[in-house]
């Protein structure tokens, strides 16, 4: 078919030049030249079409890198972070799971800006924008969701069972009674709320010496509780001097339903203070002790 079409084309070409070619008398050399010309033209057209269809994909110019790291589980600043296994780590829509050692790996992340994130129940969500231009390592710190362990309010009362004891090697004294904290409305001082607290202790004092005695007594003092805009609670009190903590804590720190914090009291009397905090309640127990003396406040239930 192609050969016949070529002959017809040659016939027309001959007619236009004043020559009439007959199918029986053909100039073979001229036909071959025309055929070569036609084939060259077709080859050129095919090359152009092929080049147009084979456009370069933008993805061919993108570089890819690895992103690896470790997921840490942070319970408190008082403890070294642990390793978090089985944490789902996402980079945009790609995901992987951290291993038993907390490590994760993405083998092929394109160059540019991405979002790496981790979302787990009972943890604060983690999300960060990362710019990838080389193999990258990142540390992910997960913090447990916090609960309120010091819900202080103005115009309120807190009642404690109170006891104290002391000894000098010859005689000893013990007090037992009730301590009542009257918390006044806060005053704003710079970036903090300052609560003035009046402490009233009604107690029975027992004196053990060569002569035993017992008496009912009352004492009253005042101190302040400060809560700054970072929710850090601090005290200006003879018992709680040097004590400070964030009111929002990770419940995983609890032991027997409370979180216990220990402090060295920098006051004039060298002592140690242990504070027990209960979720949504606040101060549950205060124990202060030094050389041959102690004080204890225990929340009246």
Overall description:
By secondary structure, this protein is mainly beta. The protein has 3 domains: 2-55; 60-145, Immunoglobulin-like (Sandwich), CATH 2.60.40.1120; 148-299, no CATH class. Helix content is 14%, strand content 51%. The protein contains 2 helices and 21 strands. Strands 10, 11, 12, 13, 14, 15, 16, 18, 19, 20 and 21 form an 11-stranded antiparallel beta sheet that branches. Strands 1, 2, 5 and 8 form a 4-stranded mixed beta sheet that branches. A 4-stranded antiparallel beta sheet has the order 4-3-6-7, with no helix packed on it. A hairpin with a 7-residue loop joins β6 (112-118) and β7. The radius of gyration is 43 Å and the shape is rod-shaped. Residues 1-10 and 12-25 have low confidence and may be disordered.
Helical stretch count? 2
User: What is the H-and-E element order?
Assistant: HHEEEEEEEEEEEEEEEEEEEEE
Beta-strand content bin: over 45%
Helix content: 10-25%
Globally, the shape reads: rod-shaped
Q: Report the strand count.
A: 21
- Average of pLDDT: 86
Rg over CA atoms, rounded to whole Å, is 43 Å
**First-residue to last-residue Cα separation:** 107 Å
Largest beta-sheet details: 11 strands, antiparallel
Structural class: mainly beta
Low-confidence residue ranges: 1-10, 12-25
């Amino acid at each position: 078919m192609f050969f016949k079409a070529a002959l017809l084309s040659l016939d027309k070409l001959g007619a236009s030049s004043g020559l009439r070619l007959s199918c029986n008398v053909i100039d073979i050399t001229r036909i071959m030249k025309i055929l070569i010309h036609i084939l060259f033209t077709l080859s050129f057209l095919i090359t152009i079409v092929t080049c147009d269809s084979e456009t370069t994909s933008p993805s061919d110019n993108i570089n890819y890198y690895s992103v690896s790291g470790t997921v840490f589980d942070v319970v408190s600043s008082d403890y070294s972070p642990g390793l978090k296994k089985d944490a789902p780590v996402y980079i945009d829509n790609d995901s992987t799971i951290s291993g038993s050692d907390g490590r994760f790996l993405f083998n092929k992340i394109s160059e540019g800006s991405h979002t790496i994130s981790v979302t787990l129940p009972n943890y604060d969500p983690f999300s960060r924008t990362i710019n990838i231009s080389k193999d990258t390592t990142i540390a992910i710190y997960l913090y447990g969701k916090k609960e309120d362990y010091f819900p202080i309010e103005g115009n309120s009362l807190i009642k404690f069972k109170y006891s104290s004891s002391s000894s000098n090697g010859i005689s000893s004294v013990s007090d037992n009674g009730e301590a009542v904290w009257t918390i006044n409305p806060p005053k704003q001082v710079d970036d903090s709320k300052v609560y003035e607290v009046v402490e009233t202790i009604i107690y029975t004092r027992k004196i053990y010496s060569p002569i035993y005695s017992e008496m009912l007594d009352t004492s009253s003092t005042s101190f302040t509780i400060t809560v700054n805009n970072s929710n850090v609670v601090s005290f200006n009190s003879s018992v709680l001097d040097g004590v400070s903590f964030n009111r929002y804590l990770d419940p995983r720190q609890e032991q027997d339903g409370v979180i216990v914090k220990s402090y060295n009291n920098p006051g004039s009397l060298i002592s140690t203070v242990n504070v027990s905090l209960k979720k949504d309640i606040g101060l549950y127990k205060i124990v202060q002790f030094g050389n041959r003396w102690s004080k204890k406040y225990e929340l009246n239930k």
